[in-house]
Amino acid sequence: MQEIGSGTSTGGRKPILLSVRGSGRLVVGLEIDASSCRLLLVTLHGERLSMVELPLERSEVATVVEVVAAGVNSLLTNRDRSTLLGCGVAVPGLVDPANDTVDSARRLGWEGTPLRSLLAARLGVPVMVTDRGKAAALGELWVLGKERAHDLIYLYLGRGVAGAIVLGREIHWGASNIAGEIGHMTVDPDGPVCACGNRGCLEAFVSTAAIIEQLQPVLATKRDGPLARALRSDAHDSDVIAAIGEAATLGDPDAGAVVSSTARWLAIAIAGLINVLNPSVVVLGGPTAGWGRVLTDAIDHELGQRALPLSRREVTIVIGHARDLAAPLGGAALVLQRAAGLLAGSEPNDGGRRSVA
Ligand SMILES: [Zn+2]
């Protein structure tokens, strides 16, 4: 288990002001990915206590529920279990509030999966579930605190491309909770087929798999060097993506070309979004956002040619501050936002399905 220090050390705000009644109560924020579960324990005042990451060797929901239960037990070692108020979950899929299920979580093989109810029954506390894009955006909003932008777009760049739209300092959920699925905006009607079945979605061009695929021809000409070694290895996608970013920063032309291409596709989507929504900040998170300035500079350059001058003038493209804690932090924030109702017993144990399943 990893001790991670208090929330205030990174300038995080207290997500909710609670009476002394809530003191001593705890919340778990959880991110489920295809290969691991990461759980974060926080107090009702937003202090981050500890974190645990457990591997997922199988992705059937029953197995995942047991892994999560083991993680919660680990976090609560030497603590009174009755202090746990709830668990907020970020999943790499869509959440259907009407049916209380997780859908389209392809890397987990989940469709119509009743994760929330299964986990609530196993843990014995209220559970709230949302997609990773919105959870990570909530985590970034938490870290941004009082400085957070009034209107913001969040993009998660990983094996999938998720996102969230923040309007008036609040997440915009949409009619069926899927607002912000920016990865499935069509950016080229004749582009490759996306995992969702559409053709030419943003995700089909800028997912980590699509980026790595673009560099395969390089292996024919590049025998050595860090980039070729990373591409030849069986390293995790996120490690290969990091190697591409380092190579681009050091001036490798092949890596630089892939960064430029990725930035171009992202800028096509972002230009449309900022023209429509006129945010002041676009936050990039996930493994590919680790490219840092080499990526944001390239997007800025592309936006100069694609976005309306007034949209472009007011917007800043930044890398998220919460980094890989964003999604579990956002999971915890889901529960903290409802903590007052949960403490008062006025919040039904249905995860507040009006906005999250
Ligand atoms: Zn798609």
CATH architecture annotation name of the largest domain: 2-Layer Sandwich
Sheet with most strands: 6 strands, mixed
The N- to C-terminal Cα distance equals 29 Å
Overall SS class: alpha/beta
User: Beta-strand percentage?
Assistant: 15-25%
Average pLDDT confidence is 88
Main-sheet strand order equals 1-4-3-2-5-8
- Helicity level, as a percent range? 25-40%
Number of helices: 13
Structure ligands: zinc ion
The number of distinct β-strands equals: 13
> Which sequence of SSEs, written as H and E, runs from N to C?
EEEEHEEEHEHEEEHHHHHHEHHEHH
Low-confidence stretches: 5-20
Overview of the molecule:
This protein has 357 residues and is an alpha/beta fold. It folds into 2 domains: 2-136 and 325-344, ATPase, nucleotide binding domain (Nucleotidyltransferase, domain 5); 152-277 and 281-314, 2-Layer Sandwich (Nucleotidyltransferase, domain 5), CATH 3.30.420.40. 38% of the residues lie in helices and 19% in strands. It has a 6-stranded mixed beta sheet with strand order 1-4-3-2-5-8. Helix 3 (132-144) packs across helix 12. The protein is globular, with a radius of gyration of 20 Å. Mean pLDDT is 88; it is low at 5-20. It binds zinc ion (ZN). The site of zinc ion has 6 residues, from loops.
